[in-house]
Specification:
8 helices, 12 strands, 226 residues, Arc Repressor Mutant, subunit A, alpha/beta
């Protein structure tokens, strides 16, 4: 049984969500206060969270930002009456995994939660190792053997995503959705190829065995063995 933490201050909305999720076999914990919600998230480690943007005590985005700074990677669905593109983008950039605008159909909310729960569970390790690569998620440093890598924030996130899924084929669509938070993949874009080219140049230095491989027509793979 998956455990869901709901932080929503509108009682009518919250009761409807709790009833729907309970009917579908979820165990739901509910609070209407942002500060209490943050405390419960830290204490109970739920499988997923539903967080309203506007909350008493502490707004929803601040709750999410605080959890991400604590390296808590619980998937979060953000609820909001604010549906403008800028508002959705801000919600995702603050650490939300998905965004649902009010009013919404309960069946869609359930589907989005189920989708979040199907995503690969990321390790809670703070230092990742793949072959000669090491990524320190707390200090935000990266190295290959004795060589330090000077990575931009997006390159760091891209390498982290690839290291967590080493030896797996990662398509451009997957990278756009998971690293750039694109919810709709553009028909044509070279965004991934440009960033991947820069990352490969830093990771695979002259004379070193190539770790990042381009699979023609499919995507990219980070090989764990040299």
């Amino acid at each position: 049984m998956s455990r869901i933490l709901l932080i929503e201050d509108d009682t009518e909305t919250a009761e409807a969500i709790v009833a729907e999720l309970a009917d579908r076999g979820f165990e739901v914990q509910w609070t209407g206060d942002g500060v209490d919600g943050l405390d419960r998230a830290r204490a109970s480690s739920p499988d997923a969270m539903i967080v309203d943007r506007m909350l008493p005590g502490m707004d929803g985005l601040t709750v999410i930002e605080a959890l991400r700074k604590d390296q808590v990677r619980t998937p979060v669905l953000v609820l909001s009456a604010l549906g403008a593109v800028d508002d959705r983008v801000r919600g995702l950039r603050m650490g939300g995994d998905d965004y649902l605008t009010k009013p919404f159909a309960l069946i869609e909310l359930v589907a989005r939660i189920e989708a979040l729960l199907r995503r690969p569970t990321e390790s809670r390790e703070t230092i990742l190792h793949v072959g000669p690569l090491q990524l320190d998620l707390i200090e935000r440093t990266a190295c290959r053997g004795e060589r330090w890598l000077e990575l931009l924030p997006r390159e760091f996130r891209l390498l982290e995503y690839m290291m967590r899924r080493s030896d797996q084929l990662l398509t451009r669509a997957m990278l756009l959705e998971e690293v750039w938070n694109y919810k709709f993949v553009p028909a044509t874009t070279n965004l991934i190829d440009v960033h991947m080219g820069r990352l490969r140049h830093k990771v695979d230095g002259p004379g070193e065995t190539q770790l990042i491989h381009n699979v023609r027509g499919s995507g990219f793979v980070l090989r764990s063995r040299q």
